[in-house]
Amino acid sequence: MIKDTFNRVHDYLRISLTDNCNLRCFYCMPEEDYHFTPASRLMQVDEIEAIARIFVSEGIKKIRLTGGEPLVRKDARTIIERLSTLPVALTMTTNGTRLHEFADTLEAANIRSLNISLDTLQSDKFHLLTRRNQFDLIMNNIRLMMSRGFNVKVNVVVMKGINETEINDFIAWTKDEPVHVRFIEFMPFSGNHWKSDKVFTWHEILEKISSSYAPEPLTGDLHDTAKKYQIPGHKGTFAVISTMSAPFCNGCNRIRLTADGKIKNCLFSSDETDLLTPFRNGEQILPLIHQNILSKKKELGGQFTADFSHLHAEEIANRSMITIGG
């Protein structure tokens, strides 16, 4: 069992397969000409499987594969197949651009739930946000996966002045299709141009939705990052991930493993522990895992609080989002 000093049991591991991506969302990637981590410094297939098995032996029950974009990695199919043999719930976060190529693989690996990032329902705005013309492909792939019975959650990073006017368009989408939309408050990372006045909060999101709908809260559990709701009569649901205005750290059960083999005990932790180098040297990494989790702060990496109005992003010691893993 992996437990921190606040008695939080950690049984959910997020593994980033790569910091590479075929989109260029500004809030995730610092710039267009980003220098990706060389392949030799990334965890290799055997290393990912072996390290994952160590975590599973300590009580990990769920593994989420992330990136960058996990499906741009050349050996992604092999990694998925290997990890599917572990006794865990295997899931993935993706930008959706390559799902049509991997649908059979994901199904065979018993991956039944996908988080797909999509911040706008307007193709021209999508091109502006991502610097790529892939909107129609992603929408087609979302519907493809839903038609194949996958539980699809669409992650929408809400940014004031950019896409908050589309919130009710996303809600309207849930009426006739079983899509689960998750609105995410804009979070600060290295190089993502975060400012406090760009955050559209949980309460503002609910206020916007309530102007046209009558949302009803759904029952959650201790480890939920999302506050869940449904509009009566709608096939889908929506939720809000209120990291900035109403953190959910008390029930945190998540561990992050970066593509270069560093363990982070919080999305906002300034410290991380290298597991890959000692693993390659034949050293025991289990003590390093427990030491890292025991150093976990009570909330938000110990770097800020829910009163973010005076927070300056450059004061936070962290990586860019793409190098942490979505």
Mass-distribution shape: globular
CATH superfamily placement: Aldolase class I
Could you say what the CATH architecture is? Alpha-Beta Barrel
Helix content percent band: 25-40%
Rounded radius of gyration (Å) = 19 Å
Low-confidence stretches: none
Tally of separate helices: 10
Examine the coordinates and then state which fold CATH places here, giving the name of the CATH topology: TIM Barrel
Strand-pairing-aware structural class:
alpha/beta
State the CATH class.
Alpha Beta
Write structural notes for this entry.
The protein has one domain: TIM Barrel (Alpha-Beta Barrel). A hairpin with an 8-residue loop joins strand 11 and strand 12. The protein has 326 residues and is an alpha/beta fold. The longest helix has 13 residues. The radius of gyration is 19 Å and the shape is globular. It has a 12-stranded mixed β-sheet with strand order 7-8-9-6-5-4-3-2-1-10-11-12. The chain has 10 helices and 12 strands. The mean pLDDT is 92.
Q: Would you summarize the structure shown here?
A:
The protein is an alpha/beta fold. It has a single domain (about 10-325), classed as TIM Barrel (Alpha-Beta Barrel), CATH 3.20.20.
Strand and helix layout:
Elements: E1 12-16, H1 45-57, E2 62-66, H2 76-83, E3 89-94, H3 99-108, E4 113-117, H4 123-130, H5 135-147, E5 151-158, H6 167-173, E6 180-185, H7 202-210, E7 216-217, E8 227-230, E9 237-241, E10 254-257, E11 262-264, E12 273-274, H8 276-280, H9 286-294, H10 321-324
Helix pairs in contact: 1-2
